[in-house]
C-alpha cells in the first residue's frame, strides 16, 4: 500500500526491507508482494540471532517489564529494525525512509527517534500517519488497489517477535471482556493444557540463560524452545491496560511464554546472589531501562549507562532455576548457585549457627533510634495540647 502511494505522490524509487525478528510471517510472500507492487529492489534480512543476543539478553539482565507487566516484545525489535533500515539506506544512497506506523501508537516514536539519531538529515515519511485513515479505510483502500489482506489482519492488529506476540483492536477494545480464544496462537487455553505439570531447569551464566534441562542451547534456540514448552502449558498470556507514550490508555493482549519464564527465573536467581542493597537499587534501574526501551529511547546514552551498571551486577548471576509449568501457571520451585548468599545454616532455626543473636539487641536499638525519638516527641506534644485545652473545674 505504501509502495503505491510513495510512487504516486513522491514519484519515488522504492526499495523495500523486511527484517525477520521472529514474526513467523512468510517473508518470501512479502518480497513477492513488494516486487509486484513495483518496488525497485527488496532486502530480506534475518536478524533473529542478533535480536536474541543483543536485545533480548540485555532485557533479561534488566528484568525488563513495562509498567511491571509487559515484556516489551514489540518495543525491543523497533531499534533493531530501524538500524537495519539505516544500513540499507546507506548502501543504496537513499534520500529518505518510509514506515507504516499510525500517528496514535508508540512505534512511530521508536522508528522516528532511532532513524533520526542514526541517519540524521534523511527524510522520514509516515504515510499512514499523514492519511489519518481508520483501519477500516486502510483495508478498503488495499482492496480497491488489489492488495491482499489476510483474515487475521482484518480481525486484529498483530505484531510478533521471538520475544512475544501482541494482539490489539477488534473485540479486544472492550476492556471489560475476556479476549476471545482465537486471539491466541502461541499458547493453549490453560483449561486445555496437560493435566500433569512439567518441570524445566534453566541454567544461567552471568545473567543470561545458557541451557535448558542440562542441554546447552544458543540464545535464539533456547528462547524458541521455551516459547513452545511454556505455550503448551498455557503460560505467558498477559492482559494489560497500558499507557502509551502519546497518552492513550490501551488494552493490550500479549502471549510471551518464553519471556514470562525467563524473566521470572532470572529475577529469582538475582535474589539469591545479589545483596539486598543491590536488589532494591537495581529494581529502580530495571524499571528505567524498560521505560527507555518502551518510549523509543533505545539509542539514548542513558540506556547504555544503565547497561554498564546492570552488566556489572550480573557477574555473579550464575546458577540454576527450576520452574514448574502447570495449567497456565508458572512457579519457581527451586534454585541453586555457586555464588549464593543464601546460607541454609544461617537461616536454620534449630541449629547453632554463626549468626550472632546477641548482636540483634544492639542493632535494633540503633535501627529504631530516630523512629523512637519521633514518636516520643509526638506523644509529649499531644500531652501538652491536652493540658492546654483541658478547662479548669
Ligand atoms: N503496545 C505494545 C508496544 O507499544 C505493542 C504494540 C503492538 N502492535 C500491534 N499492532 N499489536 O510495544
Strand content is 15-25%
Contiguous low-pLDDT stretches (5 residues minimum) are: none
What general outline do the C-alpha atoms trace?
globular
Taking the sheet with the most strands, its summary is: 5 strands, antiparallel
CATH topology: Argininosuccinate synthetase, chain A, domain 2
CATH superfamily descriptor: Argininosuccinate synthetase, chain A, domain 2
Share of residues in helices: 40-55%
- Supply the helix-strand structural class: alpha+beta
Biggest sheet strand line-up? 9-8-7-12-13
Cα separation of the termini: 91 Å
Averaging pLDDT over every residue, what do you get?
94
Q: In the CATH hierarchy, what is the class? A: Alpha Beta
Computed CA radius of gyration, to the nearest angstrom: 27 Å
Number of beta strands: 13
Amino acid at each position: 500500500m505504501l509502495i503505491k502511494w510513495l510512487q504516486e505522490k513522491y514519484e519515488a524509487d522504492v526499495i523495500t526491507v523486511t527484517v525477520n525478528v521472529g514474526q513467523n510471517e512468510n517473508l518470501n510472500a512479502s518480497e513477492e508482494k513488494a516486487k509486484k507492487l513495483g518496488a525497485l529492489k527488496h532486502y530480506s534480512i534475518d536478524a533473529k540471532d542478533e535480536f536474541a543476543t543483543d536485545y533480548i539478553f540485555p532485557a533479561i539482565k534488566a528484568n525488563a517489564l513495562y509498567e511491571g507487566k509487559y515484556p516489551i516484545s514489540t518495543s525491543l525489535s523497533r531499534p533493531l529494525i530501524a538500524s537495519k533500515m539505516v544500513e540499507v539506506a546507506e548502501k543504496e544512497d537513499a534520500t529518505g525512509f518510509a514506515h507504516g506506523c499510525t500517528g496514535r501508537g508508540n512505534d512511530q516514536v521508536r522508528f522516528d527517534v532511532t532513524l533520526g539519531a542514526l541517519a540524521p538529515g534523511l527524510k522520514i515519511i509516515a504515510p499512514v500517519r499523514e492519511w489519518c485513515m481508520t483501519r477500516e479505510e486502510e483495508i478498503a483502500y488495499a482492496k480497491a488497489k488489489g492488495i491482499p489482506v489476510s483474515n487475521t489482519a482484518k480481525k486484529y492488529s498483530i505484531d510478533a517477535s521471538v520475544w512475544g506476540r501482541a494482539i490489539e483492536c477488534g473485540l479486544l477494545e472492550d476492556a471489560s471482556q475476556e479476549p476471545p480464544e482465537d486471539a491466541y496462537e502461541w499458547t493453549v487455553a490453560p483449561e486445555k493444557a496437560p493435566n500433569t505439570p512439567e518441570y524445566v531447569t534453566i541454567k544461567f551464566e552471568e545473567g543470561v540463560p545458557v541451557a535448558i534441562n542440562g542441554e546447552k542451547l544458543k540464545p535464539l534456540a533456547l528462547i524458541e524452545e521455551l516459547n513452545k514448552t511454556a505455550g503448551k502449558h498455557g503460560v505467558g498470556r498477559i492482559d494489560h491496560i497500558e499507557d502509551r507514550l502519546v497518552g492513550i490508555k490501551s488494552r493490550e493482549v500479549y502471549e510471551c511464554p518464553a519471556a514470562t519464564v525467563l524473566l521470572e527465573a532470572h529475577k529469582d536467581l538475582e535474589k539469591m546472589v545479589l545483596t539486598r542493597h543491590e536488589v532494591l537499587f537495581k529494581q529502580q534501574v530495571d524499571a528505567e531501562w524498560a521505560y527507555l526501551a518502551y518510549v523509543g529511547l533505545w539509542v539514548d546514552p542513558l540506556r547504555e549507562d544503565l547497561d554498564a551498571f546492570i552488566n556489572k551486577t550480573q557477574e555473579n548471576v550464575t546458577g540454576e532455576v527450576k520452574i514448574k509449568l502447570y495449567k497456565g501457571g508458572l512457579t519457581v520451585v527451586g534454585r541453586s548457585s555457586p555464588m549464593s548468599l543464601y546460607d541454609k545454616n544461617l537461616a536454620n532455626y534449630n541449629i547453632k549457627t554463626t549468626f550472632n543473636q546477641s548482636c540483634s539487641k544492639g542493632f535494633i536499638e540503633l535501627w529504631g533510634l530516630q523512629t523512637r525519638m519521633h514518636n516520643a516527641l509526638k506523644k509529649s506534644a499531644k500531652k501538652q495540647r491536652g493540658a492546654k485545652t483541658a478547662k479548669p473545674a
